[in-house]
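Schema walk-through. Below, the input block comes first and the output block second. Nothing else is stored per chain. Lengths vary across the set, and this one has 364 residues.
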Amino acid sequence: MNEKFPNPGEGYTIREYLGGGHWKSAYRASTPFRLADVAVLFFHDNVNYETVAKDVSSLIRAAPNDPNSKYLAQFYSLNTAPEGRIFIVEELLARPLDRLAPLNDLTQFVRISRDLSRGLLFLHKHGLVHRDLKLDNCGLDHQQQAKIFDLGSVTSEPGDVLGTILTRAPELFVAGAKCDNVSDVWALGATLFALRTGDYPFVNKSEIEERRLINLKIREGSIDEREAQSRKRVVDAKIRDRIIRPEAEKELTGLIHGTFRGRTKDILSSMLRFNRDQRGPICAIEKSWSLLAREFAGTTGTASTRPRKWEQIKIHLSAAMKNETLLTTKQLDKVISEYEVDKPSDQELKNLIRQVKDRMSSAK
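--- output ---
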């Protein structure tokens, strides 16, 4: 497909399309202001930009003083492109969680559940609702820490129903319903259910593929927005009808009990209760996942970074510049991620990383 990317201006260069839907599209972009590539989220015309600006500004102010903010993709800025469209710039994560599902490693599953619960706890603590939690809006960074990203859906509580139907809580299928903390808990529970099993509750894989194809046809220009929304409504109606059936809760309970064991079963069950008044609050859910993660990990400690490590990396980067060794994009992304975590005071190293990155980008 010969695709024309939007122009963010301000030194950003879009490299590839990452995904999107009827109200926003995400892209990978490079920028002279950062070593690592970033995610750029362009909003479509049906979004209230003033609300977005207010809520993400609130998020930025709260982040430095709350340790749980590290479980969200780092938010960099809210910008206006030359043609007037609004876009958000945020951290680009190495691996969206949809590439991990179904996840058989129980220890990793519990650790991811803990991390995402902490990210959602941060949002709720500061009066914000995500509204669009799903596997491909959560991911792992290069240190294997799980984070919630795609912050363009975040809003003050309560918010209009906006985002995926894949993790939509049962109460949101009623006319006039609003997204809030409780519906976010269901969405995270459905996301974790899909991470472990490979399937969202009440959603068939064919329906996910159908929605993906509809979005692809919009980008190709083979169908217009009106036809796309009509087709999506047909798919969404099937999912809605499964969720509102009288036997739906019993069916989901059976699936949870048949797939999960012990405390993972108990925690997921508390997140996916149909009666929203019985759904566990995120503070209690985070404590449960954190306790379980500590038990799985045993005693943990943080290893200090060896000064020798960065000298070795400099040697490897210099060799890559001389074509003496091959450095992959994935390896370079890991180096950049570790650099931004360790923050070594070495301007020569920073310049070398940027030179290697620029060279690899120009070679594509």
